[in-house]
Specification:
heterotrimer; A mainly alpha (about 280); B mainly alpha (about 230); C mainly alpha (about 350); B: D-Maltodextrin-Binding Protein, domain 2; two-stranded parallel ribbon; about 0% strand; globular; C: MetI-like fold; 15 helices
Chain lengths: ~280, ~230, ~350
């Protein structure tokens, strides 16, 4: 049937895919476990935590989490915050990236270096004064405290700059000769070309805003304004002995990020690989 | 959550000891009664008979195991009732904590209704407070399962006693007679002393990394300077 | 005449360009100033005061830093320890009395955490990148699977892992028990040496808790490292190892003598990035262990949070934050210095 060489090649292919599949399963197993548990009842979980299915799929766990624990409200809050942060970060990084890539002004390289250096500053250093500042602005316990301070991103600005640098100058020179101003050039020429960079930044900003925890924990106090990560901590506090409820809440929080990642992964992974942006 | 002194604190009091000295100005864990209680606890968890499962997450001991049907009882508070009703497919009941050498012991957990002295709406706040503590509302709160009513009116007590399961709610009311109130310290910060010094050392007992005497001594050495 | 006009025109357009540059940068500059530079300055000031949120801060000089970093010495304790027959190492431990012992516990935990995550993520990530750097179909799919833990919320993942690590009925111990009883049935009982179920308290025993958190954080880091490695691998010119293959070099030779040296800049980059993020770990211990048991998972940032936001010692909390910053800065600097020795540059 097969020659010896062919058979060897087939075997090594099977081995190769086998290893990758096992490793892949190890990495996603916690999520399979999460979804499976979220659809069981507590006694079913305690009877056999590894089983994938209980007697039936209990979607009512999700109803409980959305209504009784108010996760629905938290998801709306988080969506508002995330959309605000994503839109803001994309706009400011487009503007800043363009300035660093195309406009000559004194101190440009120094400012860029300093700006990039801020990535090294741990957020915790400014946690206490930021809290104080939100109190002074009257933003404490309001969603704007989760949006306005986070509209700016050094890494995103750098990402856009790197991308704009690859765009040939000839494209904008003609428009410039015709008297177009820089803003028009950015909007009409650069932005349409920047799809992949914007998709990358969208994903990074989305993950950043949706998953943030320590800042909401400090800035938001009343449950009406909680974001999802706080909601999860809350479920854990009240229902820690009910794994289906805890993990139904967790599934609601994790699934949107996984979907955004899967949709944008082609650009996103490339963006991460070329700029090294972590979160 | 997992830093929960409620559990081991119960052993301390039922052993005849106390978390503090009489006027709450120094650590009481090294007193003989406290040591007796802690030692009794350590033997339950680590002794040759090992009758208790190791303490779990969330500071509860045996809670998960109880739901899983592998241990017969676990200590916790009234506030667990709604969650237990949701979790357990079997019948369960509540009893008072067993008597130790120091007699009966339990914790009195309480939440106070307060009105801010500087409120702009004292009259309205008073109306809310009266409504909250009325027999009627207390009965409704009691029926939810979490709280013991703060109003002794028969309607509230009846609602509490009839909020089932458990079939018999009287152990909760009996406990009030001898409960240790969880109250702030007069001369120090509860979090710094109990959370910061006692708890990490008690953890070492459970982990088998320190004897009861060693842990109690270390806890008191760390805590005593924090009483002002 | 003409020349000076041209010069004037150029300088006008230069000025205009500069203004435009700053205008485009304005949102970023303002945001940076208001929400980073000013809070940084305030935090630096607080770190020298007894600020507690409620009263006016009083200037303390270096007292907060002395409280965190300072030690005193107790020669008596050193002697006593030696007399008691303790080891010299233990005696030195008794001799040094830190002003805030909990800070040093948190510092040690944080450093172990950072090192652990480096070790447990970089090596698997490199091997996976090496595997996935293949022209076979489906590589994007596997890459996505391994990357998902990176994008998932840390709080969410921590709650999932709580139930994986749970001692009595958690997934991991159930798998271990099942495997052991299967092996015993299969062979070990027959030969008279049945294996004992270790029944590990992953999160409830101080001996294991930090390791368990390291394992979980590594799981959520491998995907990131792998993607960076993969990009670097794909950037290595094919002719470099084709030549070696022609020369008859073995796979291992190619890996360790050609690929790894070419990848050292990437490895270095991952070292730096992962150290910076590991030193700031907070959510994992906050959700899973609250720093316990026995302070075994208390990290510096969690300690800072306890001090600043649970006990309102915001002055002391600020000084802890600057110590974290200094630590990150120093470690990054050391890594850069050392990189000269082992990082390959063209």
């Amino acid at each position: 049937m097969f020659s010896r060489g062919q058979r060897g090649e087939l075997l090594s292919k099977i081995l190769f895919y086998g290893v990758l599949t096992i490793v892949g399963l190890v990495f996603v197993y916690p999520f399979i476990f999460m979804v499976a548990t979220s659809l069981k009842s507590s006694p079913e979980v305690f009877k056999n935590i590894l089983s994938l299915f209980g007697e039936r799929l209990r979607f009512d766990n999700y109803a409980t989490v959305l209504e009784t624990v108010n996760m629905g409200r938290y998801m709306v809050n988080t969506t508002i915050v995330t959309l605000g942060v994503v839109a803001g970060q994309i706009v400011t990084s487009l503007l800043g990236g363009y300035a660093f890539a195309r406009i000559r002004f004194p101190g440009r390289d120094l400012i860029l270096t300093l700006y990039l250096g801020t990535i090294m500053i741990p957020f915790t250093v400014i946690l206490i004064p930021m809290y104080k500042m939100m109190v002074a602005f009257g933003w404490i316990d309001k969603l704007q405290s989760l949006i306005i301070p986070w509209l700016f991103t050094a890494s995103g600005t750098f990402l856009m700059r790197q991308f704009f640098k690859t765009i040939p100058k000839e494209l904008e020179e003609a428009a410039y000769m015709d008297g177009a101003n820089r803003f028009t050039i950015l909007w009409r020429i650069f932005v349409p070309l920047a799809g992949p960079a914007i998709a990358t930044q969208f994903t990074i900003s989305f993950l950043y805003a949706w998953n943030s925890f320590i800042w909401p924990l400090v800035a938001i106090q009343s449950k009406a304004n909680y974001v999802v990560t706080q909601g999860l901590a809350d479920i854990q506090g009240g229902y820690h002995a009910s794994p289906p409820l805890v993990l139904a809440g967790t599934t609601l929080v994790i699934i949107p990020t996984v979907l955004v990642f899967l949709f944008a992964q082609k650009y996103f992974i490339e963006g991460v690989a070329t700029t090294g942006i972590k979160k | 959550m997992s830093d929960w002194w409620g559990l081991w604190g119960w052993f301390v009091y039922s052993g005849g000891g106390s978390l503090f000295n009489a006027d709450r100005t120094a650590c009481g864990l090294t007193e003989p009664g406290s040591i007796t209680g802690l030692q009794f606890m350590a033997d339950l968890f680590l002794g040759p008979d090992r009758v208790a499962p190791p303490p779990g997450l969330e500071g509860g001991v045996g809670e998960t195991e109880f739901h899983a049907g592998t241990v017969g009882m676990f200590p916790n508070g009234r506030w667990m009732t709604p969650s237990d009703r949701a979790n357990d497919a079997f019948d369960w009941a509540v009893v008072e904590m067993p008597k130790g050498p120091g007699g009966n012991a339990t914790w009195l957990f309480w939440g106070a209704y307060v009105i801010n002295a500087q409120t702009e709406y004292p009259q309205q706040a008073w109306t809310v407070l009266k409504a909250l503590t009325s027999p009627d509302v207390q009965a409704q709160i009691a029926a939810l399962g979490t709280n013991i009513p703060s109003n002794k009116a028969q309607a509230a007590v009846d609602a509490f006693l009839n909020s089932k399961p458990p079939a018999d709610n009287t152990p909760f009311i009996n406990g009030a007679a001898y409960a240790q109130a969880e109250i702030p310290l007069f001369t120090g910060n509860w979090n710094d002393i109990v959370g910061g010094q006692y708890q990490p050392n008690i953890d070492k007992i459970f982990a088998g990394l320190a004897t009861v005497q060693e842990a109690a001594q270390a806890a008191c050495d760390g805590a005593n300077p924090l009483f002002k | 005449m003409l020349k000076s006009r041209i010069r004037e025109a150029i300088s006008k357009s230069r000025t205009r360009e500069s203004i435009e540059g700053y205008l485009f940068l304005l949102p970023n500059l303002l945001g940076f100033l208001i929400f980073l530079a000013i809070p940084l300055a305030i935090s630096f000031y607080y770190s020298f005061t007894d600020y507690n949120l409620f009263t006016t801060p009083k200037f303390l000089g270096l007292a907060n830093y002395a409280k965190a970093l300072g030690v005193s010495f107790d020669p008596q304790a050193y002697q006593t320890a030696l007399v008691q027959g303790k080891s010299w190492f233990a005696a030195v431990g008794a001799w040094i009395k830190p002003n805030d012992p909990t800070f040093w516990v948190a510092l040690r935990n944080t450093l172990v955490y950072a090192l652990g995550v480096l070790g447990f993520s970089i090596i698997p990530a490199f091997l996976l990148a090496w595997l996935l750097n293949s022209r076979l179909r489906g590589m994007t799919f596997y890459r996505a699977l391994i990357y998902i833990p990176v994008v998932a919320s840390v709080v969410g993942s921590a709650l999932v892992w709580n139930w994986i690590y749970q001692q009595q009925s958690g997934a991991l111990n159930t798998i271990i028990s099942g495997t052991i009883s299967w092996l015993n049935k299969l062979i070990f009982t027959a030969i008279g040496h049945p294996l004992v179920d270790p029944y590990i308290g992953w999160l409830v025993l101080p001996q294991y808790a930090l390791f368990s958190l390291i394992l979980m954080t590594s799981w959520a880091t491998v995907g990131y490292d792998m993607v960076i490695f993969l990009a670097a691998l794909q950037g290595i010119p094919v002719h470099l190892y084709e030549a070696a293959t022609v020369d008859g070099a073995s796979r291992w030779h190619i890996l360790f003598r050609i690929i790894v040296p070419l990848m050292t800049p990437t490895i270095f980059f991952i070292f730096v990035i992962n150290t910076i993020s590991s030193l700031q770990i907070f959510s994992e211990p906050y959700i899973m262990t609250q720093g316990g048991p026995a302070n075994s998972t208390l990290t510096i940032v969690y300690y800072l949070y306890q001090k600043g936001f649970q006990r309102f010692q915001m002055g002391y909390g600020s000084s802890l934050a600057w110590i974290v910053f200094a630590l990150i800065f120093i470690i990054t600097l050391i890594q850069f210095r050392l990189s000269g020795r082992w990082v390959y540059e063209e």
